[in-house]
Amino acid sequence: MRIDILSLFPNMFQATMGESIIGKAQDNGFVDINVTDFRQYTTDKHNHVDDAPFGGGAGMLLQAQPIFDAMDAIQQQTEGQYSKGRVILMDPAGRKFDQAYAKELAQEDHLTFICGHYEGYDERIRQLVTDEASLGDYVLTGGELAAMVMIDATVRFVPGVLGNMSSPMGDSFSNGLLEYPQYTRPADFRGMKVPEVLTSGNHQKIKEWRMRESLRRTLHRRPDLLKTAKLSREQQLMLEDIKLDEDPTVPD
Ligand SMILES: C[S@@+](CC[C@H](N)C(=O)[O-])C[C@H]1O[C@@H](n2cnc3c(N)ncnc32)[C@H](O)[C@@H]1O
User: Fold this and answer.
1) I need a surface site. Which of 50, 132, 149, 202 has the fewest CB within 10 A?
2) Structure letter (DSSP) for residue 60
């Protein structure tokens, strides 16, 4: 997968994109991340990429010209090797990012993220994009942090990146539920004991316990997820059972 990022602050990406799993994913050739400082494409003699809004108002807007020219350059560089893929405008008014969105983006061979700054965009920039994406209902100073989060969550789903595709699928949200509690050695730490079933060696019982705890945690912490989670008959019965024998006001 190729990922292009259009940003006025390319250095912001060095630390996060070069380290850990994303760094390794690049080293191993699973993803190729390229950051373009679109200021280099401005035709303004003072190197400006923003201007005041027509009709007046506070703040400055990113101009269309540098972004259109940067996109043309990326198109020329990638033509024949990658599709245009998805072009994602970072915007608090966009589609809210979640795990399903990450999985969807991971199917593409090419993603381009446009990171805004200042008060917003010249509206014509939206002609270039397939997606407008938001990290959440708050306003950041720029699209860079939001793009980094989206790239991190998406790259986890690119086959081979985690080495074992069962890992992202078992993560919270991937199956519509929160992840079950987990423990590692020692089995008794300061009197806090690991649930016996996990050290029993009985794989069927462990599987059932995990399913039950995943349902219980989701019911207690994020009951909204249960409205859309696709539960098997076994999970539905388990959930009914949990509701009967648990006081849902008790936090787990
Ligand atoms: C200061 S914000 C502009 C906010 C704009 N005036 C508004 O009210 O929608 C500058 C840029 O940061 C990025 N940004 C801010 N909040 C974001 C969010 N929640 N999700 C994604 N991008 C965001 C966008 O690229 C945005 O154009």
Assistant:
1) 202
2) -
Measured by CA distance, the residue closest to atom 12 of ligand 1 is 142
In the sheet with 50-51, reading across from the earlier edge strand, the strands are 50-51, 61-62, 120-121
Q: What is the pLDDT of residue 55?
A: 97
Residue 146 Cα, ligand 1 centroid: separation in angstroms? Answer: 9
Q: Which CATH class is domain 188-246?
A: mainly alpha
Pocket (CB within 6 angstroms of ligand 1): 90-93, 115-117, 119-120, 134-136, 138-143, 146
Mean pLDDT of 169-181: 88
**Domain spans of the chain, in order of start:** 2-155, 188-246
CA distance 53 to 139: 19
Using the mean position of ligand 1's atoms as its centre, give its distance from the Cα of residue 181 in Å: 35
Domain 2-155, second-level architecture: 3-Layer(aba) Sandwich (3.40)
Query: In whole angstroms, how far apart are CA 186 and each of 127, 193, 200, 201?
Result: 57, 9, 15, 16
| Centroid of ligand 1 to alpha carbon of 172 (angstroms) | 27
pLDDT score, position 198? 98
pLDDT in tens, 105-147: 999 999 999 999 999 999 999 999 999 999 999 999 999 999 9
User: According to the model, what pLDDT value does residue 94 have?
Assistant: 98
Sign of CA dihedral 72, 74, 77, 80: negative
